[in-house]
Amino acid sequence: MSDWTDLQEDIISEHKRDESQSDEEIAVEVDCSASYVNTTRKEFAEQEGGNESGGKGLILLLIVFVILGLAAASGDGSAASMSVVLFCSFDIYGYILQTG
Description:
Elements: H1 6-17, H2 23-30, H3 34-73, H4 79-99
Helix pairs in contact: 1-2, 1-3, 2-3, 3-4
């Protein structure tokens, strides 16, 4: 963790220990307000989301290349089928981001 206060590190540690805990439960454990826990968890999720997106982007690229390779091998390289491939790829990518 970078640039986190001791209290924020305690909050994040509690969050990692049991992600199902509510903000109020973590607040009691670390002796702070539930709103501060909520803010810290959101900041942590944003930071983690940014760090993880590169790996998910690689998965998307792999999926796109496999689908494009299959389309090229079948001899159907029309613009319409490529548009469908890209649309499906972004749909899959959205699903990957949502499910983590």
